[in-house]
Amino acid sequence: MSLRARGVLAALLVSTVAAGCTSVSTDPQVPLSLQFDSLPALAVVVGDTMRGGDLQPARVPAVAYNAAGGVLPDTQVRLVGIDPVSVNAFRQLSGLLITGRLVTPMVRVVAQAGAVQSQTQTFAVVAVPTALSRTAADATDSLVYNGLDTSTRFVDTRARVLAGTTPLNGLRVRFRVVSIPTAIVDSVRLVNASSGRTVASVLTASDAATIRLKAYAKPAVNITGTVTLEASIRARGTHVPGSPLQFTVRLVPFSLAP
Known about the structure:
By secondary structure, the protein is mainly beta. The chain is about 10% helix and about 40% strand. It has helices at about 5-20, 85-90; strands at about 35, 45, 65, 80, 90-95, 95-100, 105-115, 115, 120-125, 130-135, 140-145, 155-165, 165, 170-180, 185-190, 200-205, 210-215, 225-230, 235, 240, 245-250.
């Protein structure tokens, strides 16, 4: 039994004893605990399946365990809306996939396996995206690659997902580096702006998908150049208009910084 499964089982046994129950089923097909603490995204497009970091339909990571800590089949797990609006907003497909039915700002869902129920997770069902774009302000992104403080050698760059003129939040946008100026930098990295962890995709939030570009400059370089990035998003099995979207970030030395 894994350490995680042991912890889940121990917690459940404690709560079971506290509730006055004196027996726990050892049937390997009976769910005893359930883990459901995240979703692949915080939104799904109406008529589409919730997508993960690779922009493909992504399984909801809900896992049911038996008394021995063994993982039970996905067929034992159901995703249940906890209010009438949530019930009508989505549909569960085989393989623990979520598809959007009706545009809904907040869907509240739990995972259920037998008599065991998880904590609530929330997501939105949003309109079909009509564009992936950048604003005029985004086009001026620049990075001082040789600043005295190495921790500041980054720039946050953005792409927006729109339905008409309305920004859509909670959807995954994938980023990749297309080219770098090898005369200036040895490498660049794309990281999550909050955690600093290397990532390939981020969720749209506050009306944009924001990713941090970090540069690792060669010594004694004092010229300008550009990094070319690409952003992409898919919905209903195809790229959203404007996707993939290529754009550049200007690299400038400290002495030439505006």
